[in-house]
Specification:
The complex is a heterodimer of chains A (112) and B (111). Chain A has 112 residues and is mainly beta. Chain A has no helices and eleven strands. In chain B, β4 and β5 form a beta hairpin. The chains are: A mainly beta (112), B mainly beta (111).
Chain lengths: 112, 111
Amino acid sequence: KQEVTQIPAALSVPEGENLVLNCSFTDSAIYNLQWFRQDPGKGLTSLLLIQSSQREQTSGRLNASLDKSSGRSTLYIAASQPGDSATYLCAVRKTSYDKVIFGPGTSLSVIP
Amino acid sequence: EAQVTQNPRYLITVTGKKLTVTCSQNMNHEYMSWYRQDPGLGLRQIYYSMNVEVTDKGDVPEGYKVSRKEKRNFPLILESPSPNQTSLYFCASSAINSPLHFGNGTRLTVT
């Protein structure tokens, strides 16, 4: 059974720092991996989607990498800003129309 | 505007009174799904649908029903709600090889 974990559970950094969030999954046979952002009491916003054949995706200050063989993905946030404060979740899918398994999330706080 | 719309946003009901939470998407997505989010338990999938008339159970389907009679709609039905179904519910949709798009959520309280 696929399990997804995220480390750390919470992170507090000063504004301007570069940071890395980690996502691990137990079954490397995934179809894709997606990173989301969730603000308190709000829905999830998609940040990046990495297909199983890809190694990384970039969007602005965000870069996500995928290493299927080791069951890991990282989300790199450059030059963090207070507006980046939110919970970041990763999710994996085994096939294109299969169940989606979410990690527990990392709560990020960027201090001005 | 491309979106997933859930209604209602907030719902307070009593044990045993049947309710339906609606979900509609305007992106012609084949895949739709329902999740519940609880403190300490994270997001868990309830049901998902790969296309019209095709549905499958997620990890926590007990106490819920769904139907997919049209491509754009995927309602979540609680036939006899219980207090342990108090939660924040999300609907999401996607096409093949595309990101999941989420609705804004429905906060359900069952007393």
